[in-house]
Amino acid sequence: MGARLKSVPALATLLPPALALLLLGAHFWRAGVMPLAAGCVAMLGLLFVRSPWSARALQAVLALGVLEWLRTAWVFATARAAMGQAYGRLLVILGAVAAATLVAALLLRSQAARRHFRNRP
């Protein structure tokens, strides 16, 4: 019955999406958007639902997370540029976070994730 991680590849595949969700939740928490922060934490539960729809839901949320990171980079960089401050490092950091979130979403399409979520290989 419950979801068990039967192998190291499954853990290695599911850990990046979990971390990406936690980081996105922390971002929303810091911004004061508590419903979205709670939603990110709640989405962690889908990692233990061994059904193909849960993998797709996680991918959709992480894809939206990528867009949120890019939006945040744009807003912060625009504000810094208007104040005459440097913003290159900010763009590199938030771009890397967006890329890591994208990689986490793509890992949910791997063979180990398909086995975990009981998709066909």
Kindly give the count of domains. 1
Radius of gyration from the alpha-carbon trace, in angstroms: 16 Å
Q: State the end-to-end distance.
A: 22 Å
- Our estimate of the beta-strand percent is under 5%
Helix content: over 70%
Question: What does it look like?
Answer:
The chain has 121 residues and is an all-alpha fold. It has one domain. Helices cover 75% and strands 0% of the residues. It contains five helices and no strands. The chain has helices spanning 8-31, 34-43, 52-82, 88-107, 111-116. Helix 1 packs antiparallel against helix 2 (34-43), helix 1 packs across helix 3 and helix 1 (8-31) packs across helix 4. The longest helix is centred in the middle third of the chain and has 31 residues, at 52-82. The model has no long low-confidence stretch (mean pLDDT 91).
List strands and helices in order, with pairings:
Elements: H1 8-31, H2 34-43, H3 52-82, H4 88-107, H5 111-116
Feature tags:
elongated; 5 helices; 121 residues; mainly alpha
Quick summary:
By secondary structure, this protein is an all-alpha fold. The protein has five helices and no strands. The radius of gyration is 16 Å and the shape is elongated.
